[in-house]
Amino acid sequence: ERWGRHWLDIVGYADSEGYTDEDRVRNHAWRYRDYVIRSFNADKPFDLFVQEQLAGDEMVAPPYKNLSQGDIDKLTATGFLRMAPDGTASGGIDQTEARNQVVADTLQIVGNSLLGMTLHCAQCHDHRYDPIPQADYYRLRAVFEPALDWRNWKNPAQRQISLYTDADREAAKQLEEEAVEVDKQRAAKAEEYITRTLEEELLLVSGEIRDSLRTAYRTPAKERSAEQQALLKEHPSVANISTGSLYLYDRRRDERARKLDAERKQKEERFVEETRQAELAKVPEADRAAVEAALNAKVETRTAEQNKLLEKYPGVLVTLATLSEFNPEAAKEIEADRQLAQELRSSKAADDLKEYADRAAAIRAKKPIEGFVRVLQEVPGTVPATFVFHRGDPEQPKDAVLPSDLSILSGRPSLPENDPEIPSTGRRLAFARQLTDGTHPLFARAIVNRIWLHHFGRGIVETPGDFGFLGDRPTHPQLLDWLADEFVQSGWSVKHLHRVIMSSTAYRQSSVASESGRDKDPENRLYSRYPLRRLESEIIRDAILSVTGKYNDTPFGEPIPVMEDSVGQIVLGMENLDGERKPVDKVDMHGEEYRRSIYVQLRRTRLLAMFETFDVPSLSPTCERRTFSTVAPQSLFFMNSPHAIDAATDFADRLLAEAPGATESQVQLAWQLAFSEQPTADELRKGTQFIEQQQKNVRDQKIETEDPKIQREALSIFCQALLSSNRFLYVE
Questions:
Q1: What is the span of the domain harbouring residue 454?
Q2: Is the pTM of this model over 0.90?
Q3: At which of 486, 508, 530 does a domain end?
Q4: pLDDT value for 345
Q5: Domain boundary among 477, 508, 539
Q6: In this structure, is residue 448 part of a structural domain?
Q7: Structural domains of the chain, count
Q8: Tens digit of each residue's pLDDT (9 = 90 or more) over 609-641
Q9: Taken in order 298, 301, 303, 307, is the CA torsion positive or negative?
Q10: What is the mean pLDDT of the chain?
């Protein structure tokens, strides 16, 4: 991931198209990023790494279906040639200019990254400083023209290949058939509910128009007569019945059920009382007064004679439970009302139909996800001509040219115009193989110079993208040649080159300058000491995540999204906007926001605010070498930004959890985590005193009043000081 970031800088990797203010998101670009990371992890031979990026599509036989992982990697690798800003999918632009700009930027990326040359200077005329005639520029352009034919252009969306296999399609087809069957069941069920609802609503209208209203509803809308339309307009409760509105009728059924329940309770009381009175009327006149007295007496005070009398006439003790014995018709009516209310309450059309919809959605969710890869490829059988443009104007073509390497590199084999052995022209594959055959005078030197640059902060040639006359001379030319040869002889192993460099005396020395070193090598061009370097913006963020314990090491996959916050700063997060496009509730990202910075979405017009503060490069179209500034906003970031303050609090919480108790233990652990070393006795004493002083300040200012909170606040201030220190931000 670390070295992948360096390469992505060189090629101008971004997750958006750029070119216009629209800056469309570049879907699936992240697959190229992952390809680069995996290649460095596996120590893929660098010659193969470059060949795949220049001509991966020509190394895979079309059609690109049922691809193996190796073939997918080769096609993904051509994303190298898809990194230039590309606004050709946007409207309102000059397509001729935009397309040719993509080609020009692509050649600039190739020249800077692989040749260490500024080729774009020869686009309009012979190079003013290097021996590169204008015709050479267009000969090199001819290598890429078949895949980047500006006259028969493909916009970004047309340069994607599906990763679906035949097995994926068959599985998706079967699952879709299952889902369609559930959809049919849902449609049939919906029709049942519509019919039932229609009949219920028709019961509420006059019987004279019931049949006409039913016919009007069932007649297709385009075939309804004026009378039918008018009739439906008069009865919206019928006209509005549809699958989507059934939930409204469910609510009405709930209301009816509640009303029926209330009416049923009144009926129950009335029927029980009426039945009791009827049964009492059946009691002989001689016993009636005594029965009434027994009924009016409390149960616990009734005499044995009264209980015996009531047993003789059980009907006078009728209850709802025994109503059916004495008044079966009333009991049937109450039960019918209860069942109707239950039916109205339990029969929820919307809920039932939602279950069908959820089942169908769950089935479809099992389909293999169709992935896509951004690819550069040629149209088989097409060999577009390449012309030298007068003053770089594509509307003024001059002489036609054939593909070749730079003419200054005399003795290089010619490139094929159209290779008959493969479906494409084979130009890029031939160029890639020549470039990496071990004899090219620029390629290996340019690559090892960049590797040296990222180890030492400066290259042996300090202008890694310009080995020409305007570039700097190599400080150690023999070392550059030796490293290039060692790189080739090792089988193009980047990890071998790392071991060679990192085991050297130059790399393993201290950054502390000796007195003689300062006198003889004030700029450290002779490597009299290890160069002091500030961390890059992304690595600062990663280091903060690491020491706070929040770091999520999940690799690969889609980028972590960025968005504007309420004050317009670009922060990590998923956009959640209201109707006025203002941010509302924060979306939980489930820890994704703590992943490594290489996985943060890199939009050209939406660079993360923290990254901008610490000099993340603007890709125009590539980053030849990062620059480092020392400006006030960097200090202010660590003093005031919510990100830094939250990080300091998280750091403090980690210390409290892992080193509870003595302040000295917390200072010691903080030093180990932040600086990867033990504090000296003096540093330990000063750190402890600082925290104790901050505890006093917090207590005096009544920022916190409880001891645990006072300790946490003081420790957070200490952690904030460590994170903002040069010792944390610089590699010594």
A1: 443-508
A2: no
A3: 508
A4: 57
A5: 508
A6: yes
A7: 2
A8: 999 999 999 888 889 899 999 999 999 999 999
A9: positive
A10: 90
